[in-house]
């Protein structure tokens, strides 16, 4: 079988050329990084869980008419997605104060915000993904005013959907990050939710206990990351058939 072409390797995923033009295979690695990759570990089973959870969220968004790049899951670690041009912004939506917002504004972690707050960071690892305003985005041409209107509306729809889905299983969606892609269709372009939506890119807290069920478990050394992600998958009813068993010997066929 011919070796497939690697297009890009990121911190948590690798992208390969897909079987049809305009498609990409997105492979979920077990690598976990934080603080701009200063902290790194390999957490067995994380990629499998994120692949399945991202599929679940992207399919749900598709069902309510929010366009995404997702086409289908191929196997435990890979999904087929539409190839798109990623807008160089991290779009963050916050419902409760946490993380960098607390540091920046001195807010108490967990305080409910008066309304969802949308922030934009410029995607540049060397600069540490700095916070930018719509002025920077317009002036440097990263997105047009029409794009920004569409991005805001997409981000808020994702927030409503994700908040509701998580609330139904006793989890609070504190905040999340999404990335937006452009797909060109002749002279036209449309924007889609791209990359992934998973506990790597959200803050998820158990409503009753406040237990963290997201990547903060890794960032802050709060216990087993796979246990946390497995709990999210279990509550949503999307546990993979062969749940990862970290630490146990693996049989190789
Ligand atoms: P922050 O509070 O650190 O700015 O993070 C806000 C949200 O964005 C949180 O849900 C975690 C997510 N996030 C990413 O997905 N990737 C990143 O590189 C960072 C810094 C945050």
Overview of this structure, please?
- There is one protein chain.
- The protein has two domains: 77 residues, Phosphorylase Kinase, domain 1 (2-Layer Sandwich); 149 residues, 2-Layer Sandwich (D-amino Acid Aminotransferase, Chain A, domain 1).
- The protein is an alpha+beta fold.
- Helices cover 28% and strands 32% of the residues.
- The chain has six helices and 14 strands.
- Helix 1 runs parallel beside helix 6.
- The protein binds thymidine-5'-phosphate.
- The site of thymidine-5'-phosphate has 12 residues, from helix 2, strand 12 and strand 14.
Give the C-level CATH assignment of the largest domain: Alpha Beta
**CATH architectural grouping of the largest domain:** 2-Layer Sandwich
Task: State the CATH topology of the largest domain.
Answer: D-amino Acid Aminotransferase, Chain A, domain 1
Corresponding CATH superfamily of the largest domain: ATP-grasp fold, B domain
> In total, how many domains does the architecture comprise?
2
Bound compounds:
thymidine-5'-phosphate
- Main beta sheet: 7 strands, antiparallel
Q: Ends: how far apart?
A: 19 Å
Structural class: alpha+beta
